[in-house]
Amino acid sequence: MRTVNRTVSAVLALVATSPMLLWAQDDHAAEGGGGALFNINLGLSTWTLLVFGALIYVLGKYAWAPILSAVEAREKGIQDDLDQAKGQREEAAGLLAEHKKQMAEARREAHQIVQDGKDAGEKLRREIEEKARTEGSAMIERAREEIERERDAALDALRKESVDLALAAASKLIRENLDADKNRELVMGYVDDLTKSGGGAQA
């Protein structure tokens, strides 16, 4: 729009100065008797200027206004497009920054989940090991108690069997009146029975 205004001002200035130039050329031709090339008809020039001025007036009133309106509308449209593009660019930059922020947060959460999984796995491993140690200790203790009970039971059985054998041997000695050799033989047999019985109980 500024370019059009400058053009119109230049044309009007040219129109305003044209009569002065024409009169100066006419005086110069009259003084020097110049050739036909520089002879200008003042009347024709005046009518030409009047017609040109009228054309400028008509164009300014009926043609330039719509042209200038169209140019202004086009300029406004371009400016709106530029403003819209700037807004979209700023919005895209904001979305990109938000996306980067979300990606960083997602990576942090993923790292935290992995770390939590490792911690949970380590805790479960320790719990399983502790439970296994506890159960193993309990099983060993139960086995030890069972062995002690079986040993005590075997000793009780051996004592009872020894008492029974001693009573049986004493009964035989009392019932039978034997000589010393016979008594010695019976005692030796009793000792052999005790030894056999003790070996069988230990086995």
Give the structure's gist in a few sentences.
The chain has helices spanning 2-32, 42-175, 180-202. The protein has 203 residues and is mainly α.
How would you describe this structure to a colleague?
By secondary structure, the chain is mostly helical. The protein folds into two domains: 2-100, no CATH class; 154-202. It has helices at 2-32, 42-175, 180-202. Helix 1 (2-32) packs antiparallel against helix 2 (42-175) and helix 2 runs antiparallel to helix 3.
Number of domains: 2
Helix content: over 70%
SSE pattern: HHH
Rg result:
67 Å
Mean pLDDT: 76
Count of DSSP strands: 0
Number of helical stretches of at least 4 residues: 3
